[in-house]
Design a protein that fits this description.
By secondary structure, the chain is α+β, with helices and mostly antiparallel strands. The chain is built from nine helices and four strands, in the order αααββααααββαα.
Length: 434
């Protein structure tokens, strides 16, 4: 059988090598193409790099950008009310001629340039231009805020994934320590210095850690998938650069509430809404326009007339209830915009207070847990030494080992939650400048 396998392998080598195809032994399993494999040596991504990728990937940012273009288009439409219009007109009219025949026709051609210049429309154009500028600034501030909120989503997914990775490392260290502990206990059992029940107790804790590790792996994968969804890139490793967060008084953060982009956007929306009231009021004012014609070709009595000008003035007298309804609607929308602006101010203050409370609490908790981990590790070391001297039992050593495991995991969670809360505070105050 081995000779047949060698012969088939040699035959495949002869057949496939001339065509550039690598021959494989029949005993080896076929591997997927290289292009289908996930990159194994991908560089670790920092938080900033993940955010830069998310800016490119996010559809929300793209939509906000298009809204800015839409506001610019409205602004150009408002400017159009001031601009003159010039057109070229050609007409060739035929009418019954002066002859005796009913079929005689007379051709009257006319070729001219037509000019129309608005003069006055109740200040509607000025208000529309101001409203258009306010709308554009509103969309720009909304885009700025959308970028800041995207940073929150990226930082949350980044530190959640990082937290699961570090928890996984802590659990693997505990598993390794339990395996070492079981080996030591087994040797003591062989020497008659420990009971089999102690080995069984340690194995039970080991299996619990392994089960907990599997749950953690699934949660890590879900968090990683969320980060990959935001960045549009496969994430194999993360690089958390150390930073020293600067904490200032809460009053300094609260003082920046009115500068937050969403508050500024609400204020610009209020400005635009007020200007739209002026636009609707213009329906009650007279309008004036200048119209002119420059003739290139005319016939008949008007053949010697090269140009003419006309000033049109329209004074509205009776228009029904439509214009009044439009003004009332514009006033209501302006009142709504003012309420939205006030709500945005109060919401910003509340979010800053909440974010500041969460961050300061997480910071204090992280410092306390760091001391708790040190104390738990010291206790485990002392318990292990006492166990060698038969001063404590195996259950106390395992409990000390479990305490180290729990304290490390809590510290990892709190540390990453503290960093996450720090960036949330920066976004809440609008201090992040994407």
């Amino acid at each position: 059988m081995n000779r047949w396998k060698k012969a088939l392998g040699l035959l495949s080598l002869i057949l496939f090598l001339p065509w550039g195809i690598e021959a494989k032994s029949l005993d080896e399993e076929s591997e997927p193409p290289v292009a289908m494999k996930a990159p194994q040596n991908q560089r670790a991504l920092t938080l900033k790099e993940c955010y830069d990728l998310a800016l490119i990937q996010s559809e929300t940012i793209g939509l906000q950008t298009e809204l800015i273009e839409e506001a610019r288009a409205h602004f150009l439409q408002a400017i159009n009310g001031f601009m003159p219009t010039i057109s070229y007109s050609y007409a060739d009219r035929y009418q019954h001629g002066p002859g005796t025949s009913n079929f005689s026709l007379r051709e009257i051609p006319e070729e001219k340039f037509v000019l129309s210049q608005p003069l006055f429309a109740g200040f509607k154009e000025f208000a529309a231009i101001t409203a258009g500028r306010a709308q554009r600034r509103q969309r720009e501030e909304e885009l700025h805020r959308a970028r800041q909120l995207l940073f929150t989503d990226v930082s949350d997914a980044f530190y959640l994934t990082l937290s699961y990775e570090e928890e996984k490392a802590a659990l693997e260290n505990i598993r390794s320590a339990l395996e070492t502990r079981i080996d030591e206990l087994q040797k003591r059992v062989d020497l008659g210095r420990s009971r089999l029940s102690e080995v069984a107790s340690a194995e039970a804790r080991l299996r619990f850690v392994e089960a907990d590790l599997q749950t953690l792996l699934s949660e890590e994968e879900i968090a990683r998938q969320m980060l990959e969804f935001l960045t549009g890139k496969t994430v194999t490793a993360l690089d958390d650069s150390p930073f020293q967060p600067e904490v200032v008084a809460e009053s300094e953060y609260l003082a920046k509430a009115n500068e937050r982009p969403d508050v500024q956007a609400a204020r610009e929306a209020l400005t635009a809404a007020k200007k739209f009231i002026v636009v609707q009021r213009a329906e009650f004012f007279p309008t004036a326009a200048l119209n002119g014609n420059y003739y290139i070709k005319r016939v008949g009595n008007a053949a010697d007339v090269d140009w003419d000008l006309t000033i049109n003035v329209d004074v509205p007298l009776v228009q029904g209830t439509g214009p009044w309804g439009n003004v009332k609607l514009a006033r209501s929308q302006a009142n709504q915009a003012e309420l939205q602006w006030r709500k945005a101010q109060r919401t910003a203050l509340l979010e800053i207070r909440n974010a500041y409370t969460r961050y300061t609490s997480a910071l204090l908790r992280t410092k306390a847990l760091e001391k708790a981990v040190t104390a738990a590790e010291k206790n485990l070391s002392l318990q292990s030494e006492d166990y060698q001297l038969n001063l404590v039992n195996n259950l106390e050593v395992l409990q000390a080992l479990e305490d180290v495991q729990n304290q490390r995991r809590e510290y990892v969670r709190s540390k990453n939650a503290m960093k996450q809360a720090y960036w949330n505070l920066q976004v809440a105050t609008g201090m992040i400048n994407p």
